Amino acid sequence: MKKLDIRRIIPSREECGCSLPHEKTLREVVVGRGIVEDLPRFLEILNVEKPVAVFYDENTFKVAGKRIVELVDGLGIIVNEPTFREAEGKTILAKDARTVIAVGGGTVIDVAKYTAYKNEAFFLTVPTALSHDGIVSPIVSLFSESGRRSIVTKAPIFSLIDLDLISKAPKILLSSGFGDLLAKVVSIKDWQLGRDETGEKYCYTAEKYTMKAVEIVVGCLKMGRVKDYEKIAEALIYSGISMMIAGSSRPASGSEHLFSHYIDMYSSRRAPHGIQCALGTLPSSLYHERYNPNWWKNPDYEWRQLRRYMEKAGIPLSLNQLGIPVEIAVKALVFSPDIRREKFTILHKRRLTEEEALQLLKETELI
Prior knowledge:
By secondary structure, the chain is of the alpha/beta class.
């Protein structure tokens, strides 16, 4: 069993020298095998309050949710859809819970996170897949009537990552986690553009943890260790920490995430979040290479090499294979900057025409 004392990892604003939040809500992350049974002991150590609400979906209930409800004598709450309407409903349903535990992936974690934040309850996560970096982040991303929207809430106080659970997840979800992490190569450079072009606040400590996450997964892929669950979990945690430090998704979400959000909003067929971010990373990184003199000099982060890493991670890199229409992907590159005008990226700096966007998709072999 490996324990990460997160409060010791995150420096204060004064130590860092920046004005961003450096949130220290997350106390500890525990990674190991067969540790779900230890959850009651950790709750006792954390001194959290009862009653406890356990959130899960239909699949994660079978994998771990049912057992965790029994272990903590909790109220079981099923999550059906990734919407703010759903989250508001669960906030009412769990109004008496003093502790909320999310057992699952992105949707379950985000709905539970929102509920805990609104009800001022303790929040813990037990991820069942390493599919995204929201496991310990303060960010909630759900659908509203106007499309996908992200808000800042609070990070969990504790996360228990049982590698036996993780190893049972569908392979595509692990590939999604790799995609979400490789995408940080673009998000950091987009954030730097915001700093340099618009005077946006920036934090080198957040950058350090984001890139530490990237270096870990690149190292795994170079060595062919695509099932090194402990290392991949560590990378996702570091990315989450970067968002805690920044108090926003900025270090971990740039033009590649806007691309994914656009697909979520307008495509009838969608892929897992990290897969869509990986798709967006390739044209965005090529566009950076051409029009951002400050793009990475490290050959590992050149778009062709990123594509090779994605292939090693088992990420499908064909729009046709994923059922995403080419015209939607083209419009995503052209119009996704309008989703978040304040989040300056390479797609804001030099707006694409539809012809240019189509050419980028062809050059990066997505079509």
